[in-house]
């Protein structure tokens, strides 16, 4: 079975950017596309950035046991569909999941062999600036995300690896090293 890499951390820490850069440098690494109940942001496409589901359809899929993990975050639901993950890992390529801390914990229970990586911001002030700079959330949503971020940051020691995203190139190089080492360690001999 191909290696699964879980990348998590607080909202606004740069998970998406880091994963894009990581996949540019490790092209065999496939991205498992998560499902969400949030509306698409400008430029996002269904099935590419997320599987955008209505809250009702998401709840029905949870009831069917269709998710490896699912969580609510800032009033929206997110999850990894089993079929999506199975389709990608069955091809023999390593897969990366970009998920929230709640979901990472569920994956750890369901798949203890998955490599868990926590992305840390250089400071909470930097995190606040990134969230505000995105321009996708109002002040109340930014405050809610920061409140959640504080509790998530307290969980960072639960993870196999911690990568601080202070400098993009340094953080990406660290991630590439982790993926290469872990993939080599699990390769058949």
Automatic annotation (TrEMBL):
<dbReference type="InterPro" id="IPR008144">
    <property type="entry name" value="Guanylate_kin-like_dom"/>
</dbReference>
<dbReference type="InterPro" id="IPR017665">
    <property type="entry name" value="Guanylate_kinase"/>
</dbReference>
<dbReference type="InterPro" id="IPR008145">
    <property type="entry name" value="GK/Ca_channel_bsu"/>
</dbReference>
<feature type="domain" description="Guanylate kinase-like">
    <location>
        <begin position="2"/>
        <end position="180"/>
    </location>
</feature>
<dbReference type="InterPro" id="IPR027417">
    <property type="entry name" value="P-loop_NTPase"/>
</dbReference>
<dbReference type="Pfam" id="PF00625">
    <property type="entry name" value="Guanylate_kin"/>
</dbReference>
<protein>
    <recommendedName>
        <fullName>Guanylate kinase</fullName>
        <ecNumber>2.7.4.8</ecNumber>
    </recommendedName>
</protein>
<keyword id="KW-0418">Kinase</keyword>
<comment type="similarity">
    <text>Belongs to the guanylate kinase family.</text>
</comment>
<comment type="function">
    <text>Essential for recycling GMP and indirectly, cGMP.</text>
</comment>
<keyword id="KW-0067">ATP-binding</keyword>
<dbReference type="InterPro" id="IPR020590">
    <property type="entry name" value="Guanylate_kinase_CS"/>
</dbReference>
<feature type="binding site">
    <location>
        <begin position="9"/>
        <end position="16"/>
    </location>
    <ligand>
        <name>ATP</name>
    </ligand>
</feature>
<keyword id="KW-0547">Nucleotide-binding</keyword>
<keyword id="KW-0808">Transferase</keyword>
<keyword id="KW-0963">Cytoplasm</keyword>
<dbReference type="GO" id="GO:0004385">
    <property type="term" value="F:GMP kinase activity"/>
</dbReference>
